[in-house]
Design a protein that fits this description.
Blueprint: E1 8-12, H1 16-26, E2 31-37, E3 50-57, E4 60-66, E5 78-83, H2 86-98, E6 102-103, E7 108-110, E8 116-121, H3 122-128, H4 133-143, H5 151-159
Parallel strand pairs: 1-4, 5-8
Antiparallel strand pairs: 2-3, 3-4, 6-7, 7-8
Helix pairs in contact: 4-5
């Protein structure tokens, strides 16, 4: 486990190990660490079942807890992943959605375990901090029509051009 004083604990029904392996295979600077088994029967499983999995996703120390079906993930917590290219945006989005996840709006999607992800091209976050508020509004308005973010359409909106989003 990391020496970092903060570790995100993510609650899963029973698939923490599968989720950790998916994140490690999908996101850069991600890996699976130790797997810990239950020393005895508990409300969410039996002795010997995977109880927790240490993992890192995008450099963030996490522990996946197989806690049973009581608590579910919600959009109140999400990972925001900044991307630099459409290819990177597409790869991450398609990996999450294509592995049993689901699309939402404005760059948000949810993985098959219910965890929310914001796949956000840097051009979109950068324009929001520019002094040109009209460009920011055009980019924001374009984003509001999208599921997966289309960088070319955002860049066109910044320039004041109209392009249909993919």
């Amino acid at each position: 486990m990391s020496k970092n004083p903060v570790t995100l604990c993510l609650w899963y029904d029973k698939d923490a190990e599968e989720a950790a392996n998916f994140y490690a295979a999908t996101f850069p600077d991600s890996k699976v660490g130790a797997t810990h088994r239950a020393p005895g029967d508990n409300p969410s499983g039996k002795e010997g079942d995977v109880l927790t999995v240490d993992f890192t996703v995008l450099g963030i120390s996490c522990i996946g807890l197989n806690g049973g079906p009581t608590f579910k993930h919600s959009e109140a917590f999400s990972f925001q992943v900044h991307t630099d290219t459409q290819e990177e945006t597409d790869r991450l989005w398609n990996a999450i959605v294509g592995n049993g996840g689901e699309e939402s709006m404005c760059g948000w999607c949810r993985d098959k375990w219910g965890l929310s992800w914001q796949i956000t091209p840097r051009v979109l976050t950068d324009v929001m901090t520019m002094p040109d508020k009209a460009a920011a509004k055009r980019a924001f308005d374009a984003m509001m029509t999208m599921k997966k973010i289309d960088i070319a359409a955002i860049e066109a909106a910044i320039r004041g051009e109209t392009v249909d989003a993919a």
